[in-house]
Design goal:
By secondary structure, this protein is α+β, with helices and mostly antiparallel strands. The protein has three helices and eight strands; from the N terminus they run E-E-E-E-H-E-H-E-H-E-E. The protein has a four-stranded mixed β-sheet with strand order 5-6-8-7, sandwiched between helices. Strands 1-2 form a two-stranded antiparallel sheet. The radius of gyration is 16 Å and the shape is globular.
Length: 129
């Protein structure tokens, strides 16, 4: 299982269908708890001290970017990513796409930068409060 995005359409007749995305986090058949406000605040404080490790340009979130982001998350757990001005997508779209594909949490989105968090599968380093 993992992160799933479910689409719901409007049921009223004669209306254009509306597409709504709802995040569902599952792990082992149950629902995974999202980050609490305290945990998110702690991660934001940590993110202030880290540098941008990945930049997304006009090619968007291709396989190469996904691989680099996955490796960075595994090694660091908390990564800051920048969307370049020539990119065809905005920070929110890129953050949601990467977080969904990499099973990571969005910590924050500010301007053209966003921060993702995912505990390491092998050896978690960041202890959340």
């Amino acid at each position: 299982t993992g992160l799933g995005l479910h689409d719901f359409n409007s049921t009223k007749t004669g209306e254009e269908p509306k597409r709504v995305s709802v995040k569902v986090f599952e792990e082992g058949g149950g629902v995974k708890k999202l980050l609490t406000g305290k945990q998110r605040s702690y991660l934001r404080a940590l993110a202030n001290r880290i540098e941008v490790v990945l930049q997304i340009g006009k090619s968007g979130t291709n396989k190469s970017v996904l691989k680099q982001a996955d490796e960075a998350l595994e090694a660091r757990e908390l990564v800051k990513i920048r969307i370049l001005k020539n990119a065809l997508l905005d920070a929110e779209t890129a953050a949601n796409g990467l977080a969904g594909k990499l099973k990571a949490e969005i910590v924050q989105i500010i301007g053209n930068n966003f921060v993702l968090y995912r505990p390491s599968r092998k050896k978690p380093k960041i202890k959340l409060p």
